[in-house]
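Lab notebook, bench 4. Still working through the backlog of constructs that have no structural model yet. Next entry is a single chain of 354 residues. Request: give me the structure tokens for it.
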Amino acid sequence: MAAIAEVASTLSADPTAVGFGRYLALFLPISWAWSGFAFYATRFDTDDLVYRLLTLLGMFCVAALASTVPDALHGGQNAFVVAYIAVRLVLLLLYARVYRDLEVARPVAGWLLLVFGSAVGVWLISLAVPTPWKYLVWAVALLIEHAGPIRAWQLLRGMPVHPRHLPERFGLLVLIVLGEGVIGVVLGTAHVSWTVLSGVVAFGGILTAAAIWWLYFDFLDATAVVTRNVRSGMTYVYAHYFVAAGIAALGVGVKLAIFSVEPGPRYDHIGWIAAAGTALCMGGLAAIQLATPPGFFDADVLLRLVTAAVAGVLVVLSSVLSPVVIVWLLAAVLVGQVIAELEGHEGHSGGGPI
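Model written out:
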């Protein structure tokens, strides 16, 4: 949570298109670190003393990673890399235990040790590379890391796994970023004079978070998608980057929209951040929905894509629409989608991950 908060703070401090790009770039390794431990725990969580100690060590390394985020692209690149390498080394130690102790899992553990170990080597090389070429080496390392699980998922076929474990862990990630959005609303109202207008924006922000929570946990059959096939499972994992990054950006956008009610022109045209975050989130949810059995382009997929498209239009119109108006338009569209899906899923029993 601290790492995500730090990444979000970089966007708050630099609410520009370049700042948004930097935010997305930093969010990728942070979210991937979460995914790595989630993927491991889904299959190989032993809950013994060594596992708990390594998990605590991993948490310490993630905290160190969070502390390097503010300067990760401003002179502190190598500190960020060292902290990230430490996180990945803990994961490698965990897979080394699997390789040693679980013969049936040696193919997948050996593959991930090879791929993730190679990526760590590339990260180490980046320490000696000057900027901006350093960022290209980072991209290569992340590409290697993201390619590895595709083969690993195939090697895991036939191994016992509880189908709800992975959705529960990614559901927790979504709850964390939704919580960050709510915290953003609280911080926004704490730093401005409490007025009717600031209260209206804050309530609109809470509505957007509540609507996304409802759409994710009530209308997404995550258990079905992760057990369908390799393509669907990996779509579920990779699309969560866009879902989580989008929700966190939406929270930042709502906070800045609250700031916009104060006198001064600094935040007059900042509504595009909330709209861009919504577009990312709904695009990711559409991809997950499309990968869910039976895999048709149904009404749910269409609704998510329409919401993403509306949010994209609001990004363009942010130069003429106030952030307050954009937040409430987003809230209206998201709440409308919830209502439409409630009617379309009448009798729905709730197949979400939590």
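Notes after review: The chain has two domains: 2-155, 165-344. DSSP finds 13 helices and no strands in the chain. Flag for follow-up if needed.
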